[in-house]
Amino acid sequence: MKQVKVYTTTYCPYCKKAKELLKALHVPFEEVDVEQDTQLRDELIERYQWQTVPLITFDEELIGGFDDLNRLHSEGKLMEKLGE
User: Fold this and answer.
1) What is the DSSP string of 2-42?
2) Which of 20, 53, 62, 64 shows its CA 20 to 30 Å from the CA of 79?
3) Which positions fall inside the Glutaredoxin domain (predicted)?
4) Burial 48-73 (b: 16+ CB within 10 A, else e)
5) What pLDDT does 84 receive?
6) Residue 40 in contact with residue 53, Cβ under 8 Å?
7) How many angstroms separate the CA atoms of 26 and 36, rounded?
8) What is the pTM of this model?
9) Can you give the CATH number for the domain in which 28 is found?
10) 49/77 Cα distance (integer angstroms)
11) Per-residue pLDDT of the chain (84 residues; tens, 9 = 90+)
């Protein structure tokens, strides 16, 4: 299974939804809180051209946000994308 990272902030409702979906599917993930780390946020924006949270990656490949994660799940492609 690919390494999943979810970059979040504490006040983001879509971050919570993304984490809940991954937990419900028993997908292990690392949560990285970027709320106070502006340097990391800037690095993520530059690397992925993505400015909102959650920012979700599988093995450092940008998946997108909650809507993208949920779409993969709804289409039955999430576990395949994870290498399961």
Assistant:
1) --EEEEE-TT-HHHHHHHHHHHHTT---EEEE-SS-HHHHH
2) 53
3) 4-63
4) bebeebbbbbbeeeebbbbeebbebb
5) 73
6) no
7) 28
8) 0.93
9) 3.40.30.10
10) 24
11) 999 999 999 999 999 999 999 999 999 999 999 999 999 999 999 999 999 999 999 999 999 999 999 999 999 999 999 997
